[in-house]
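Continuing the batch. This is chain 6 of the set; chains 1 through 5 are on the previous pages. Same settings as before, nothing changed between runs. Recording input and output for traceability.
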Amino acid sequence: MLHAHVFKRADRHAQMAPPHSARAIDLARWDGSDWLAEEWRALEAHARWPTQSHAFAAALTPLIEGQRRKLLGLRAGGTISALLPLCRDAGAIGRWRIAGSRELFEPGDLLAARPDDAAPIADALARLRKPLSFDRISADSPLLPALRRAMHRRGLLSVRPAMPCPLIVLDESWRDPESHFNSGRRSDFRRAARRAEALGPVTFETLAPGLQDFDALFDEAIGVEAKSWKLEAGSAIAVDRRRETFFRRFFREAAAEGRFRLSFMRIGGEAVAMQLAQVSDDRYWLFKIGHDERFGKCSPGTLLMLHTLRWAAGEGLRSYELLGEAEGWITRFWTQEQRACVRVRTYPARVSGALALAADGAHWVWQRLVRRGA
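Output for chain 6:
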């Protein structure tokens, strides 16, 4: 587990607290503690992504088992003011990554109370003996300028554009989501709805299940996803036991905190499309979608998305965030607004950095040759 035991103000816990430090420290030796969980949750008010939460990091254990782990933290003014969970493969060529980024393909970032808190974390990152490989972090992250300064004369830093995350900024007009599309699209929506209604009574629901109902509803949702193309592609949650365990733990914790949202479209009472999402920071964060391919002609995924857009606007949420990547069907159909992300890599001035640079250079040359030959 990635959480760690830090200090608490009560004197009876003083002997277990880590030493005060103005520098970033590795908190991993306090693994298993409730103290850091409390500090981490308090810090989540400054999060940019739901992947920065304690619940997300704590649920990662089955996905990063066997990897080296590190939790960089900054203690300032008696509280933890910055956190960055890392992991890497064992061995000489392993690179430090934001924990879970490779396994789940989601963006992440430094969790910090203030932009200035990035500097000590960046300094600690620059002093690591292994290179960094952060595939997707916020393009305006305070970690970037801090890391540029920290890497000066310590090695090379590469910052390149990465796949952005689409979003829809919500306002009252999204209570009628169909109004945002042209007449042709609206006609498509009506046609899909008629096809669905011809098969049986159509209902939509967005639920905030408690712990008592969570597992049964979660199982129903991933069962719907397993009836889609994702099963054959190997990306369905039910295909990978470790991923299923992660999502079950992560969403169960969100359900306990009242943040989990599970949406279904049903035809004749049978679930034909689903969404797994979380509400935080007045935003609807969409993690997983899926539909039963037997009902593909009535576009259940599209109809359910219209429902959840209408629901989110009705709840007064600020945005509808499509996590994952800005795939063509999203940017062509739903939105061109995006959260910009970048890929960050470091090459320390040591053997490990030289090996990483050589490997990346060879990969770049190979890609160029493949493109020329295509």
